[in-house]
């Protein structure tokens, strides 16, 4: 799979409480399958997938489809692996934050997960998508869509109601996250071409002159 | 670095696998980037694209926050490595972390600053793993030097150890070569008999020819038995011999010794069982005050798995080994309960021992030490007035102060030979009149004080034998429990010994889930009609009692410790009439074979052993010359090994404890994919005298060779099961009745093979985890 025949290597990381469906989510995304048996992830794992990304914004370099090799890190939700999994946060470009719609506590813990991210990720506000998983279990729902959306808005992140079991919104959520990353990347990189700025060819870019709007977003 | 010591071996293995995959991916990415750069190098326009495509944008962003450029996977890898290194020898800790951190900084290349190195390559992961193994091999070598560095000990170090080399060669490390010569001890002796370390695998394939010899480290001569006792205890707490060196230097060592000295009778299990009970830490804490050092540090050795390395101990332990233990321990909860009982029990003894100066008490009777264990076990009453007392009992049972009470009240009559056995019946088929070893137990019998204590309980029960109620006022009010007692006399023993019989009676309860243990009467000399008139007490609840079978066996006590079986009687307590308080005469029967040992689900091993005694010189004491005794262990096969993986690749490892040095270790070859491996492998250990037979223990462990590590499947320990070795309590002298039976048969029939099929059990000491 990792044959080098791709344009970008993108690393995502799925996190959330134990049992919310991270492994299943990723398995659904990569293989299109669902296994209802619960096998807790030991520490950490990852899956890979090759996708083609087409940028939505008209841009010379990304009009064609970009081959993306995705490395999807799957972390254990269990407390005992916490120190281990947190170490991997720094490696991911984007995060899929999951909770279980039938488990209110997992939703309440989203706050904690977000703060963990803010501490350990590669920057202070990485790209995250919030997913309320197990939406197929409608009769066991314990978290309303409204309150979930509200929380997502508070963080300024997209929210999806997903189901690893039937695949609903799984690809969509990941695609959106990918899009966010690619856009961020373009922004990061494109900044160097703004004429006001020190042109790259003349030396390293001066970080103090970064645009105000993007200051918080991307440190390039 | 992150403390990952709480993870089990298996978990760490899985994680390592994931990290490897990640490293592969990184490698491929690195390749790709290199190619890209070549192609797009000089074109300024495409520098942007390059930044995209190489992920540089990300690393730049990351570098602003995380000063180092290390990937998470590298951190974890380093943590795991460090975890292993630290555990083995504290003195290596600094070196390791230095090495690691320098390694870490290596990863932040002096390469182009814009490029973040893609982390550890797969080769490096292999290196890391290699280092793990190497450190596992390396560290014990140097420190292990010290404890055996006593002039009185015969130290033997083979110039080369094929086992280690064979393993290390797998990893292609040249590093261990120079280490081997280091190990030549100053005592420099007797490379005698162990004609070098011929690889056992090579030499004994198939049949049993040319087994490899291992010289057993005799400890009899060494002066500081306590020192080694604490060694053993330290060792028993699950350490590769490395920490013994710490014992030598550390003040903790001396404090350990002194503490041990003050309680000679620290029972073998207290240290490790206390440490085993992580879940019982509350109780442990309450029981620890008596003697902190020997109990606490093994405890902490286990706790370290949970807690960060902030616990300061002079003896860091092998975390990986412990984690293996942990895994195993989790799998045998019932054993833990038993051990917990033992722990409470024995720690209680412990406390008392500080106050009590007497030593080596043999318990024929008094039962107080049982009390702490009883809260856990179902206690039965065997007296008439059960009901009102039972309530009191239930109350008492749940009161923690029971423990305190029992600690105060425990008398000196404690058995150093307390064991937790499930089924007692050993099988000695013949009396031996071979040569001599002084029996450690014989001294017990002659101790006048001890005898006095034994007879203390007798008077009120003269002429009264019962398996039922008693009216012992001494016990009654204090504890309000009932006990199973018996006095006995015996007539017409068969004189199988040919001479006048020297006999005693042993009692067991079967199946003894509450681990009440065996009891013994005193020895009556030279009579075929011995009258004992002794009471063997078990404190049990009636309902529990009714589920048990009492086995009373009569043994001939050989002066030299080879006791032979004379006869026995099984008493089905469910059918016993407890109201019947008169003397009973029960006919003794012969017993041909022991009942099938209870299976613990770990499979069983068929093996044969024999002991070839040394030739006694006329002076009476054999020198450690070419003519020392030998133990031969013929590992035939195993059956029904637990399938901890989809397939297992089993092999058997053997040590003669207390010698855990590498040279003492022998292994069979690894068989592939079988739960019923037929090894047919004989191991020989020499330098063993008959005295050693009571102090040493042959530990056989069955392992599953996984690619990353070995997993312990189970094992057994053949020994006297006394809980003590060379005067100090150790936890590995914990042979089950079956194991003891085989051992005793071996001792009783020198030069002859004795064979048995023994169930494998999970061994708690991490000596077994010494890979």
Automatic annotation (TrEMBL), chain A:
Q: Which domain of life is it from?
A: Eukaryota
Localization of this protein: Late endosome; Membrane
Provide the coiled-coil residue spans: none
Q: Which Pfam families match?
A: Ras (PF00071)
Q: State the reactions this protein catalyses.
A: GTP + H2O = GDP + phosphate + H(+)
Q: Which GO terms describe its molecular function?
A: G protein activity; GTP binding
Kind of enzyme, top EC level?
hydrolase
PANTHER family for this protein: LD44762P
Q: What is this protein called?
A: small monomeric GTPase
Q: Could you tell me which species this protein originates from?
A: Stegastes partitus (bicolor damselfish)
TrEMBL record, chain B:
Q: Which GO terms describe its cellular component?
A: exocytic vesicle; plasma membrane
UniProtKB keywords: Membrane, Repeat
Chief localization class? membrane
Q: Which Gene3D superfamilies match?
A: 6.10.250.3000, C2 domain
Biological-process GO terms, alphabetical: exocytosis; intracellular protein transport
Q: Where is the composition biased (Polar residues)?
A: 218-228, 245-261, 270-280
Provide ranges: composition bias, Basic and acidic residues: 302-338, 417-432
Name assigned to this protein:
Synaptotagmin-like protein 1
Lineage at the top is: Eukaryota, Metazoa, Chordata, Craniata, Vertebrata
């Amino acid at each position: 799979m990792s044959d080098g025949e791709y344009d970008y290597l993108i690393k995502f990381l799925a996190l959330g409480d134990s049992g919310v469906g991270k492994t299943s989510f990723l398995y659904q995304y990569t293989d299109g399958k669902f296994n209802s048996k619960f096998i807790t992830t030991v520490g950490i794992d990852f899956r890979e997938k090759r996708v083609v990304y087409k940028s939505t914004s008209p841009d010379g370099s990304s009009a064609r489809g970009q081959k993306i090799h995705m490395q999807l890190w799957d972390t254990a939700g269990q407390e005992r692996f916490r120190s281990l999994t947190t170490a991997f946060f720094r490696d991911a470009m984007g995060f899929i934050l999951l909770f279980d719609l039938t488990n209110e506590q997992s939703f309440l813990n989203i706050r904690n997960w977000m703060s963990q991210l803010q501490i350990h990720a590669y920057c202070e506000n990485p790209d995250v998508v919030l997913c309320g998983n197990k939406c197929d279990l409608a009769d066991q729902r314990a978290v309303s869509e409204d309150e979930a959306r509200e929380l997502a808005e508070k963080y300024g992140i997209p929210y999806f109601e997903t189901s690893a079991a039937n695949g609903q919104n799984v690809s969509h959520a990941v695609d959106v996250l990918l899009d966010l990353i690619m856009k961020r990347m373009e922004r990061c990189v494109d900044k160097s071409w703004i004429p006001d700025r020190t042109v790259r060819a003349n030396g390293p870019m001066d970080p103090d002159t970064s645009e105000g709007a993007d200051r918080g977003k991307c440190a390039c | 670095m992150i403390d990952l010591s709480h993870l089990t071996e298996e978990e760490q293995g899985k994680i390592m696998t994931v990290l490897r995959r990640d490293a592969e991916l990184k490698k491929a990415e690195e390749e790709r980037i290199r190619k890209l750069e070549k192609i797009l190098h000089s074109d300024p326009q495409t520098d942007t694209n390059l930044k995209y495509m190489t992920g540089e944008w990300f690393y730049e962003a990351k570098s602003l926050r995380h000063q180092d450029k290390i990937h998470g996977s590298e951190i974890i890898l380093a943590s795991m490595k460090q975890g292993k290194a630290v555990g083995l020898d504290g003195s290596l800790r600094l070196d390791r972390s230095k090495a690691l951190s320098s390694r870490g900084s290596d990863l932040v290349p002096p390469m182009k600053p814009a490029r973040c190195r893609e982390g550890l390559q797969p080769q490096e992961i292999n290196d890391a793993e290699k280092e793990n193994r190497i450190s596992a091999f390396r560290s014990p070598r140097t420190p292990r030097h010290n404890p055996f560095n006593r002039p009185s000990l015969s130290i033997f170090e083979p110039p080369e150890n094929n086992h280690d080399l064979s393993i290390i060669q797998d990893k292609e490390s040249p590093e261990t070569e120079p280490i081997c010569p280091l190990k030549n001890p100053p005592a420099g002796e007797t490379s005698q008999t162990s004609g070098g370390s011929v690889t056992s695998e090579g030499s004994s394939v198939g049949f049993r020819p040319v087994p490899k010899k291992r010289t057993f480290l005799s400890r009899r001569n060494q002066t500081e038995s306590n020192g080694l006792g604490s060694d053993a205890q330290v060792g028993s707490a699950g350490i590769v011999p490395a920490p013994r060196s710490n014992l030598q230097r550390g003040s903790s060592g001396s404090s350990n010794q002194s503490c041990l000295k003050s309680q000679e009778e620290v029972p073998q299990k207290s240290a490790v069982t206390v440490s085993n009970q992580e879940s019982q830490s509350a109780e442990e804490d309450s029981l620890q005050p008596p003697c902190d050092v020997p109990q606490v540090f093994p405890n902490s050795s286990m706790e370290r798995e949970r807690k960060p390395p902030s616990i300061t101990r002079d003896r860091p332990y092998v975390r990986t080994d412990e984690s293996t233990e942990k895994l195993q321990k989790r799998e045998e909860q019932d054993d833990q309960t038993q051990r917990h009982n033992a722990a409470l029990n024995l720690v209680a003894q412990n406390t008392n021992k500080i106050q009590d100066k007497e030593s080596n008490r043999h318990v024929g009777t008094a039962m107080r030490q049982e009390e702490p264990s009883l809260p856990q076990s179902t206690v039965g009453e065997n007296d008439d007035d059960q009901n009102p007392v039972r309530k009191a009992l239930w109350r008492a049972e749940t009161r923690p102060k029971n423990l305190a009470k029992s600690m105060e009240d425990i008398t000196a009559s404690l058995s150093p030979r307390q064991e937790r056995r499930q089924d007692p019946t050993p099988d000695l088929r013949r009396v031996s009149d071979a040569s001599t070893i002084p029996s450690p137990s014989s001294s017990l019998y002659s101790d006048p004080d001890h005898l006095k204590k034994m007879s203390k309980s007798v008077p009120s029960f003269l002429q009264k034998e019962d398996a039922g109620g008693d009216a012992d006022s001494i016990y009654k009010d204090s504890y309000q429990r009932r006990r199973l007692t018996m006095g006995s006399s015996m007539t017409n023993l068969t004189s199988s010994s040919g001479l006048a019989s020297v006999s005693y009676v042993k009692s067991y309860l079967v199946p003894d889930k509450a681990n009440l243990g065996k009891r013994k009467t005193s020895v009556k000399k030279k009579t075929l009609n011995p009258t004992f008139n002794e009471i063997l007490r078990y404190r049990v609840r009636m309902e529990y009692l009714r589920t048990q079978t009492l086995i009373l066996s009569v043994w001939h006590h050989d002066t030299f410790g080879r006791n032979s079986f004379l006869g026995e009687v099984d008493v089905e307590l469910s059918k016993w009439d407890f109201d019947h308080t008169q003397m009973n005469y029960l006919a003794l029967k012969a017993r041909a074979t022991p009942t099938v040992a209870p299976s613990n689900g770990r499979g069983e091993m068929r093996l044969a052993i024999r002991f070839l005694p040394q030739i006694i010189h006329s002076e009476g004491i054999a020198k450690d010359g070419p003519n020392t005794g030998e133990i031969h262990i013929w590992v035939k096969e195993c059956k029904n090994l637990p399938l901890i993986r989809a397939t297992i690749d089993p092999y058997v490892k053997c040590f003669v404890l207390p010698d855990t040095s590498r040279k003492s270790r022998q292994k069979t070859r690894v068989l592939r994919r079988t739960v019923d491996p037929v090894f047919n492998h004989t191991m020989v250990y020499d330098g063993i005298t008959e005295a050693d037979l009571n102090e040493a223990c042959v530990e056989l462990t069955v392992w599953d060779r996984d690619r990353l590590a070995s997993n312990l499947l189970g094992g057994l320990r053949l020994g006297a099961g006394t809980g003590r070795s060379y005067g100090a309590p150790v936890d590995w002298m914990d042979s089950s009745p079956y194991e003891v039976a085989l051992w005793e048969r071996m001792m009783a029939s020198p030069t002859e093979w004795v064979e048995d099929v023994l169930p494998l059990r999970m061994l708690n000491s991490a000596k077994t985890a010494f890979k």
